[in-house]
Amino acid sequence: MDIEFGIRNVARAVTFSTDESADSVNATIAQAVADGKPIELTDDKGRRIIVPADALGYAIVGSETKHAVGFGAM
Q1: What are the Cα distances from residue 71, in Å, to 13, 24, 68, 74?
Q2: Does 40 fall in a domain?
Q3: Which keywords describe this protein according to UniProt (predicted)?
Q4: Fewer C-beta neighbours within 10 Å, C or N terminus of the chain?
Q5: Could you write out the three-class secondary structure of 6-69?
Q6: What is the pLDDT of residue 32?
């Protein structure tokens, strides 16, 4: 699943992919924002992404569906 964070006062968005479910990612972001604590997620390569909740401008959580790639018969 693809995730994009917009950080306040930063021109470029932070984008990464994770193996976590959309519900899990949404719950993590909502809890961190409510508590005023950093948002901590792990990408699909094992790297940790930590964003201060008060610096978050927006978050886009992508769909979990896998899209077919290629020209094979459907």
Answers
A1: 32, 33, 9, 9
A2: yes
A3: ATP-binding, Nucleotide-binding
A4: C
A5: EECCCCCCEEEECCCCHHHHHHHHHHHHHHCCCEEEECCCCCEEEECHHHEEEEEECCCCCCCC
A6: 95
At 1, the pLDDT band (50, 70, 90 cuts) reads: confident
Are 62 and 3 in contact, with CB atoms under 8 Å apart? yes
What is the tens place of the pLDDT at every residue in 28-67? 999 999 999 999 999 999 999 999 999 999 999 986 656 5
Its domain, for residue 12, covers 2-61
Total number of domains in the chain: 1
For residues 3 and 69, which has the higher predicted lDDT (pLDDT)?
3
Structure tokens, 9: 């006062």
Q: What is the pTM of this model?
A: 0.78
In contact, 61 and 3? CB cutoff 8 Å: yes
Chain position carrying tokens 């020209």: 71
Q: Tokens for 44?
A: 């699909």
